[in-house]
Amino acid sequence: MRVTCVQFDIAWQDKPANFAKVRTLLAGAGACEAGGLIVLPEMFSTGFNMDVRAAAEGQPAPAEGFLAELARQYGCHVLGGVVNTAADGRGLNEAVLIGPDGRQAMRYAKMHPFSYAGESEHFAPGEAPVVAELAGTKLSAFICYDLRFPEVFRSASLAGAEVLAVIANWPADRTEHFQALLTARAIENQAWVVGVNRVGSDPNVRYSGGSVVIDPRGRTAAIAGDGEAILSAELDVEALRQYRREFPALADARRGWVRRLDGR
User: 4, 87, 119, 224: which could form a disulfide with 113 (CB 3.0–4.6 Å)?
Assistant: First the structure.
């Protein structure tokens, strides 16, 4: 399966401008392949912000409609970050996967809102990882700060996920953490890992890209720099399965072991 990562400078709270930018980058890339996967960053249509009303989809849902448009146009699955509203009025920072038929194939809400930036005050947490089937493999998606919590990735892998996608607005100040943690998630879960970040700046933070595709042995298959880019790589899922059979570290994981040791 071929994955195409769209790394770009997100225009602040300007959905039409961001849709136009993605269309232009993909049209000039020639890298999309029917049956593949296109991945866009977290909150790709607005940038990472705490103004739920400005970012939320509403009806009709423009960002989700745009993902469906891309999916039908390229005959691919498309994954991107959107904002919706939780029952308590807070936002939901979501990753939505749309199939080539334009229909939803997966919806995941970020389990770990970024408290350091106040996200937990404005966004409700998701409940659990989600695993979806596509193109003969299984994928689970996570969002930015989730990357610091390996137990949720392990849960997805033990449920069958072979591709772990992380969509992000990851700040330049912690670029090294992004690369190191993505590599660790690939090695410990014997999975393909796809990390898609943005570049540029919003009113508060600078971003340095570094979108990357990492193989199940922790080797970098493709990596972007700090500018706008289309990053593509072939995910060899059969080689992943063979590696898991030959070196069964994931199979040896103790199910259900993660727990507090203080009895609380």
Answer: 119
Catalytic-labelled residue, pool 32, 42, 76, 119: 42
Tens of pLDDT, residue by residue over 116-170, are 999 999 999 999 999 999 989 999 999 999 999 999 999 999 999 999 999 999 9
The neighbouring-strand residues paired with 131 are 140
Assess whether the previous peptide bond of 16 is cis (omega < 30° from 0).
no
Domains located in the chain, CATH noted: 2-246 (3.60.110.10)
- Mean pLDDT is lowest, of 28-32, 70-74, 113-117, 169-173, for 28-32
Which residue in 5, 32, 76, 144 is the catalytic one? 144
DSSP state of 56: B
Q: Are strands 2-7 and 37-39 parallel, antiparallel or unpaired?
A: parallel
Apex CA 252: angle with CA 156 and CA 190, to 5°?
50
Which of these, 160, 125, 124, lies nearest to 140 by C-alpha position?
160
Q: Is 76 a catalytic residue?
A: no
Catalytic residue chosen out of the listed positions 21, 94, 110, 138:
110
144 is catalytic: yes
Asked whether the beta carbons of 1 and 37 are under 8 A apart, the reply is: yes
For the chain, how big is the Rg over CA atoms in Å?
Answer: 17
DSSP 62: H
